[in-house]
Amino acid sequence: METYIIIFLCMASFLAGFIDAIAGGGGLIQTPVALILLPHQPVSNLMGTLKIPGFTGTSIASLQYLKKVEMNWKLLLIMAFFSGLAAFLGSHILTLVSNDFMKPLLFIVLIGVAIYTFLKKDFGTHQPKELSENKMIFLGIFISTVIGFYDGFIGPGTGSFLILAFISLLGFDFLHSSANAKLVNLASNVGSLTLFIIKGKIIWLIALPMAVCNGLGGWLGAKLAIKKGNQFIRIFFLIVVIGTLIRLSYDIFFKS
């Protein structure tokens, strides 16, 4: 493999790790770059390979958040379990069928998310909800199962969807949503990654250097998010959602 390809992939992976640590959506950076630079590789191989840097960056970002942000461990462990199982199933299905039919639906959903987040200035700043423990666990299982499956089957934007779910359904603010979403996303990465490793879908030559760069980006992004707080994360979240819309628009309307 040409050296310049690995260099470009590593640069994309660093930026992806940085963005993902703040607001999710790192896959929107490294996934299209990998598809462009490695056009002859099967999509399932690329998706499997990109799970390695995604796992590394999410792990390092999670460690940074754990030092500073309070976690609901009972809820998180339950969500992590269901997220991992759902992602394993989603990745298995991805190896059998195409996921293109989901893109128009996601496009419509994200337009609504972008408009709502932009217009509601206090969204994710302070969202107290009086939820019983049982209801919170039920919602957590629902969130982690649906988005975990999405992560395994489609992938890009998973962190953003988790943040949105933590805010709108569980009443977390942006900082706590981003921190908790990282751990749930980590579990879905493990589930998906397990399936891809079993099926031999990892291109280790590019996965390992990308993992180092993604980890560095995740470390820097998490530190910045903790320092800057909710409004900073909200702005990044909007940027990521708009970026997702642009990417989906290309796939739906222009890609042959």
TrEMBL record:
<feature type="transmembrane region" description="Helical">
    <location>
        <begin position="202"/>
        <end position="220"/>
    </location>
</feature>
<dbReference type="InterPro" id="IPR052017">
    <property type="entry name" value="TSUP"/>
</dbReference>
<keyword id="KW-0813">Transport</keyword>
<keyword id="KW-1133">Transmembrane helix</keyword>
<feature type="transmembrane region" description="Helical">
    <location>
        <begin position="75"/>
        <end position="95"/>
    </location>
</feature>
<feature type="transmembrane region" description="Helical">
    <location>
        <begin position="6"/>
        <end position="29"/>
    </location>
</feature>
<dbReference type="InterPro" id="IPR002781">
    <property type="entry name" value="TM_pro_TauE-like"/>
</dbReference>
<feature type="transmembrane region" description="Helical">
    <location>
        <begin position="131"/>
        <end position="150"/>
    </location>
</feature>
<keyword id="KW-0472">Membrane</keyword>
<feature type="transmembrane region" description="Helical">
    <location>
        <begin position="101"/>
        <end position="119"/>
    </location>
</feature>
<comment type="similarity">
    <text>Belongs to the 4-toluene sulfonate uptake permease (TSUP) (TC 2.A.102) family.</text>
</comment>
<keyword id="KW-1003">Cell membrane</keyword>
<keyword id="KW-0812">Transmembrane</keyword>
<feature type="transmembrane region" description="Helical">
    <location>
        <begin position="232"/>
        <end position="250"/>
    </location>
</feature>
<dbReference type="Pfam" id="PF01925">
    <property type="entry name" value="TauE"/>
</dbReference>
<protein>
    <recommendedName>
        <fullName>Probable membrane transporter protein</fullName>
    </recommendedName>
</protein>
